[in-house]
From TrEMBL:
Entry's localization field: Cell membrane
UniProt membrane topology term: Multi-pass membrane protein
Assigned GO CC terms: plasma membrane
Alphabetical UniProt keywords: Cell membrane, Membrane, Transmembrane, Transmembrane helix
Protein name, entry field: DUF421 domain-containing protein
Annotated YetF C-terminal domain residues: 82-215
Family note: Belongs to the UPF0702 family.
Alphabetized InterPro entries for the sequence: DUF1657, DUF421, UPF0702_alpha/beta_dom_sf, YetF_N
Residue ranges of domain YetF-like N-terminal transmembrane in the record: 7-76
Signal peptide annotation: none
Transmembrane portions of the chain: 6-26, 33-53, 59-81
């Protein structure tokens, strides 16, 4: 039998075996691999390639080597899940590189990191000055996690006492012409309302749409099969919800301005009651929007 036929056959078999073993090992992301995972992966890949192109190696011997490496890897993974000591041995543990704004030189030396490596990791996390950093940790996958000092952290609505409306991730309602009506109803929107919105954006029928999604603010995004047709993304959420939230914001503003404890508590109680009202009527507001 010609040698190239043998190589093709061995390559196909080793590829399939490697595929099966990789599936057994799991789906850990490349960015989450520890150094041990990386080295084991290289070793298994090198063994698989050797099986393919080295006719002097008995095929069964190579397969046994692959299975042994995979079994040992699984054993270490299982051990790391069950035992902290084994996990420390295999994956090590996160190390502090910057604490209270001060660089831990011993930790840098232990992990063979230079000052430039540290600064590069901080810049990736959006910290361009050491004076901004409260804590920096080297994770087991080699990434650097950063906690900035309070004065350099981004402001959130919660920091200023601002209440925001409940949010949900954008939901796909039509994918490649398939209408997921049950998902639409789960979000609290009617079929009639949704069909009205897609027609306003140039779609005559559902089959004209490649993709459509409903965003948390009530915006309907539509992508038509015919890209030359213009679509206009509009927000049709009822205005009454925004008006109620403005009233709620006014109540909280007055509560913050008054020095009377009883009055302050009264305004806050009214604000909370109004929030409950908004939560109860939100589903009905969406139905009202169906008629607009």
């Amino acid at each position: 039998m010609p040698e190239f036929i043998v190589i093709i056959g061995r390559s196909i078999l080793s590829f399939l075996i490697l595929f099966v073993l990789a599936r057994i090992l799991g789906k850990k992301q490349i960015s989450q691999l520890t150094f041990f995972d990386y080295v084991v992966g290289i070793a298994i890949g090198d063994m698989a390639s050797t099986i393919s192109i080295d006719p002097s190696m008995h095929f069964l011997d190579g397969v046994i080597g692959l299975v042994v490496y995979t079994a040992l890897s699984l054993l270490f993974i299982y051990g790391a899940l069950k035992s902290f000591k084994i996990r420390e041995l295999v994956e090590s543990s996160p190390s502090i590189l910057v604490k209270n704004g001060k660089i831990m030189e011993e930790s840098l030396a232990k992990h063979k990191l230079t000052y430039d490596d540290l600064l590069n990791g901080l810049r990736v996390q959006g910290a361009f000055s050491l004076s901004e950093v409260e804590l920096a940790i080297l994770e087991t996958d080699g990434q650097i996690s950063v906690m900035k000092k309070p004065q350099f952290q981004s402001l959130t609505p919660n920091d200023i006492g601002l209440k925001v409306s409940e949010d949900h991730a954008p939901s796909l309602i039509i994918v490649d012409g398939l209408f997921m009506e049950r998902r639409l109803h789960y979000l609290g929107y009617s079929t009639k309302w949704f069909l009205d919105q897609i027609k306003k954006q140039g779609a005559k029928e559902i089959k004209d749409i490649f993709l459509a999604q409903v965003n948390s603010d009530g915006t309907v995004y539509v992508d038509l099969y015919k890209d030359d047709q213009k679509t206009q993304q509009e927000n049709h959420k009822p205005q009454i919800s925004a008006q109620l939230r403005r009233v709620q914001a006014d109540l909280e503003s007055v509560a913050n301005q008054t020095n009377d404890r009883n009055a302050k508590q009264m305004y806050y109680n009214q604000s909370m009651e109004l929030q409950n009202v908004i939560n109860r009527i939100n589903p009905y507001l969406k139905e009202i929007g169906a008629g607009t």
